[in-house]
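Weekly modeling sync, notes
Attendees: S.R. (lead), two postdocs, one rotation student

Agenda item 3: backlog of single-chain predictions. S.R. asked that every request posted to the team notebook include the full sequence so nobody has to chase files. The rotation student volunteered to paste the first one in as an example of the format we agreed on. Action items at the bottom.

Example entry:
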Amino acid sequence: MKFSRLALVVGLSFLAGCGASGDFSDLRAYMDDVRARPKGSIEPLPKFQPYESFTYRAASLRSPFQPPVKIDVVARQRGAAEIKPDESRVKQFLEGFNIETFEMVGTLRNDRELYALVNGAGGVHRVKVGDYLGRNHGKILVIDDSKIDVMEIVPDGEGGWLERPRSLSLKERS
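Predicted structure, as returned to the notebook:
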């Protein structure tokens, strides 16, 4: 009980000390200074320039990370009339992707034929000889345990077509 009376006396003495000083001259001086300032002295917000969007137009050009193709104009191959892609054929799913995005990751064999496993286009796909791969009408000619041989038909730039051999090597696990 003595402790509670002591705490009450100390608390009342603090409250009495807070109310004893009635000097608010510094607060009144500050408020007079604020009221004396002219109205509208706040600077307006700066004008912001609207954002101008950028459209990337080089998506169809050669990748800057691939070396440029050197073409010798004199020794350049010309397309043959008998070489052309079969446009009436129904396109396969893997023809919608660039052949550089694929990598061979393995093979499967059953009693009739050998299949290759290629990683790309969002997953691992099973392909066989005769299937098509890549955007340049690439037909799979040979599947080996270590590589896939593909023959692409590409335009020669003068209205004809050229056959271009390509290989996908087995990617070793690292």
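Discussion: group reviewed the output briefly. The two ends are 80 Å apart (CA to CA).
Action items: rotation student to repeat for the remaining queue; S.R. to check formatting next week.
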